[in-house]
Amino acid sequence: MDGSSPSKYTVPGNIAQIFIVTKYELIKHFRSKRLIGTIAITALILGLIYSLPPLLGSPYSGTSHDELTVIPSPEGEGNTSYAFFSTETIVEGTLIITINDTVLPDAGWDLIEVFDQGAIVFYGNLTGEAAVANYDFKTSTIDFSFGFLTFAEILIIICAMFFAADVLVSEFQNRTAYLLFPNPVRREILLTGKFLASFIASFAMVLIYYAVIIILSLVTLGAVAGYIHLSFAFAILFLLASLALAYFISSVMKGSTGSIVLTFFLLLMIMPIIEGVGGAAGVKMWFLLTFAAHSLIYSLSYTDYPVDTSQEFAGGFTYYAYFPELGLSAIVLSLYAVAFVLISVILFKRKELNT
To answer: Helix 141-163 vs helix 187-221: angle between axes, to the nearest 10 degrees?
Structure first.
């Protein structure tokens, strides 16, 4: 022996410990069958959403020949006639009107808006004539993205279920906490590292999902919805809030199955049902996590944002259609994320191994 003192092990600092926990949790996530299942489900849904409209006779672009029903103009508007006609998907400069198979000069008609609908006004009484609108059409980038973003909410909930709902409770259920807790690592450090790993794994799924939407939109339409980045920002806020709620549930439950099932029912059934009841009762459920999450869909229409409406049905029943306010929704989602993470830390620190 050379008489030198044995080397001493230095405990890593808090930040280093967080990244160590995150690293091994990520390895666990990436090796799990849940990740493979999530990828498979996402790929299947993406394929269905993209391929079903054309297969069912609603292509994203093409050429159309629509027969028009020409009606006389109201009294006092001169020698004109009208045909209501949707102009939302028409490629600019491609519309040609024919009357009895003869092209009508551009000076003989014009596009206008009547009763909030698109219409063609004919400068002449063409009532009863065989009018046809020939044009190229292309689905708007917003309409194209809407269907994909509806599933984006479900994808985020699936990520919360698979990557967060049982992360804490499994340590107690599987007794791995007996190996973790004696180590010189505070529980809040463990939770922070685990949460960061859950977020990274889920963020990767959401990022890939949005990237595929953008690529499909560019390939199919040659353009992308202008506010897709705003939708992505709300998706990340909803992801953080959903993960935080799942961690809270995991910190109070005693079994992994119960934690996953409760997260599933709360986000996919209970909260949406409460939203529906609110619509029937005339109460805007702005404080619900899932209601605020709809901002990731409607933010695409930022410049033409929908407004709250109501519709009366037979028997005096009125149903209210409410839409989330973007600013308020951002605050609500942020509060959910911060509040439930803090509560989860407190509960996780107090939870005993014998529970």
So the answer is: 160
